[in-house]
Amino acid sequence: MTTPNAAASGLVQVRDVSKTYGKRKALDGVSVSVAQGEMVALIGPSGSGKSTLLRSITGLIPIDAGKGTIAIFGETVQSDGRTSRNVRRSRAKLGFIFQQFNLVGRLSLFSNVMLGALGRIPGWQGFLGMWPRADKERAMAALHRVGVADYASQRANTLSGGQQQRGAIARAIVQGAQAILADEPVASLDPVSARKVMELLVELNQRDGLGVIVTLHQVDYAIRYCKRVIALQAGKVVYDGPSSGLDSETLIGIYGPEFEDAFWEEGAKA
């Protein structure tokens, strides 16, 4: 089932995008638009194309040649299978949260968060740890905000998964990201840590006005935290509409008869 979505502009515009690996189409003519200020969940079975779509938006994965285009904040990122020369400038506006945190394990949590400021200072200055005072204050404020300031001096690889993921969010705050793309940010976390991470993403969306696109395996989390859901199946968009529209019949169409396996918590089924 596909629910038409009103044309949106601002954060992301994806038009007729495909991506092929060998004989398999990871994305097959995908078109979606996300406005700045929206919080959107990407759901679907494993291998449906969620992560491929998210990484294509940033230009990390090149799309197939052809008429497909991707734009961020009105600037073209990819077109006809080629990445724009301005992709780094566009990418700098996005905070990307990975499933495996992507922190430098031997560095302190504070140093990892400070890496978000690299786009504002010369590379040599960051390499030597000569951070401007304002950025240091911003980093500590971000760590306080996400609730891990007490671990600022601790090596990242000694922290729990939830603490590391909150550190990754703090890094995006220091970066000054205008939107957040999160690829399975809670897949490696226990339910309590997962809820804290999702609540932080909601806060960034509602309080700061950041657009958020998050891929999730947990349908109950998509329904609870996101007003809009886009579902992919075999590289195609099969649902785009309100999370309240994800009833059992629709979910069976997306996941098959064992759709309840896509829920994390008991009692959360549609």
The proportion of strand residues reads: 15-25%
- Straight-line N-to-C gap: 16 Å
**H-E string:** EEEHEEEHEHHHHEHEHEEH
Shape: globular
Cα-based radius of gyration, to the nearest Å: 19 Å
The helix tally amounts to 9
Concise summary:
It contains nine helices and eleven strands. It has helices at residues 50-58, 87-91, 109-114, 123-127, 133-146, 161-175, 191-206, 219-225, 248-255, and strands at 10-21, 24-35, 39-43, 69-72, 75-79, 82-83, 94-97, 179-183, 211-215, 228-233, 236-242.
Task: Give structural notes.
The longest helix is centred in the C-terminal third of the chain and has 16 residues. This protein starts with 9 loop residues before the first strand and ends in a 15-residue tail after the last helix. It contains nine helices and eleven strands.
Topology (SSEs and partners):
Layout: E1 10-21, E2 24-35, E3 39-43, H1 50-58, E4 69-72, E5 75-79, E6 82-83, H2 87-91, E7 94-97, H3 109-114, H4 123-127, H5 133-146, H6 161-175, E8 179-183, H7 191-206, E9 211-215, H8 219-225, E10 228-233, E11 236-242, H9 248-255
Task: List the main descriptive attributes of the protein structure presented here.
single chain, 270 residues, alpha/beta, 6-stranded mixed beta sheet, 5-stranded antiparallel beta sheet, 9 helices, 25% strand, disordered N terminus
